[in-house]
Amino acid sequence: MLRTVRIGTRGSHLALTQTHWVEAQLKARHPHLSTEAVIIKTSGDKLKDVPLAEVGGKGLFIKEIEEALLAGEVDLAVHSLKDMPAEIPSGCVLGAVPPREDCRDAFISRRYSALAEIPAGGKIGTGSLRRKVQILHRRPDLEVVHLRGNVDTRLRKLETEGLDAIILAAAGLKRLGLEHIPLTFLSETEMLPAIGQGALGLEVRADDQEMLELLSPLNHYPSQVAVTAERGFLARLEGGCVVPVAALGRLDGDTLSLSALISDLEGREVLQDHLAGPPEEADAMGRRLAEMLLERGGRKILEKIFGRPLK
Fold first, then answer.
1. 193 near 115, Cβ under 8 Å?
2. Catalytic residue list
3. Phi/psi at 100 (nearest 5 deg)?
4. Per-residue pLDDT tens for 126-172?
5. Per residue in 266-279, pLDDT tens?
6. Which residues carry this modification: S-(dipyrrolylmethanemethyl)cysteine (predicted)?
7. Which domains does the chain carry?
């Protein structure tokens, strides 16, 4: 391969760390490969102080990168998979899902080691609607404060904004080598993760067979199957950052399990269920679990949030 593989990425420390990891993995398998990281500023990077739910949700962090990919300005896009909408643009495909990092959320506080320890009226920071509703469902006596910015910014705001705790994705903290800070990892029963959390999505043009072949060794089947089920759930719900939903898939031997939830915006009504089945039915399983929750009251919740009928 003579061409240089141009890799589209956001410019944050975490995004570049993830991109450099992908570069290293590609070069380890293709020693003569040349790569170049191309930093692209996305709408989500520009709108730093606005809740994502108010400005369009997931696609904000990848739209401009996908446009560059389709225009041939880059050959590969490295995304945090949780930022990717369920629907991928025509002409693009998810070329590989590398081994998933820790999918849990991390509770970070210098005074408390658990959500239950924060006194009534305490403040907890997060930029995630999914986290907000799960916090309020368990602790309606707490104040959830809107928090956005990169990892360093959010950690700084823990001190500067008088917060009792913040919640961040464990994967980002581990990739940045920040496991030494005072944190507690939350189990999935305490905080069901975001769809695709901890996984990377390597997106390429659908007709770029050369890139697809280069990426093939990076794909991790258990991670791919798990996120396929999660994204099937998201696709059926027409979801994004404007909808408080969560899902987590796991492949254990020949059995794929999937847990998921839908909540109203206040965290008062949280619907949860799970399914298990063969990995070959990952997408269908996700959609089937979505239908189960829709029938149990999820449709009414989502139609109220969307302000329109759900398909």
1. no
2. 83
3. -75, 135
4. 989 999 999 999 999 999 999 988 899 999 999 899 999 999 999 99
5. 999 999 999 999 99
6. 241
7. 1-98+199-219 (3.40.190.10), 105-186 (3.40.190.10), 221-306 (3.30.160.40)
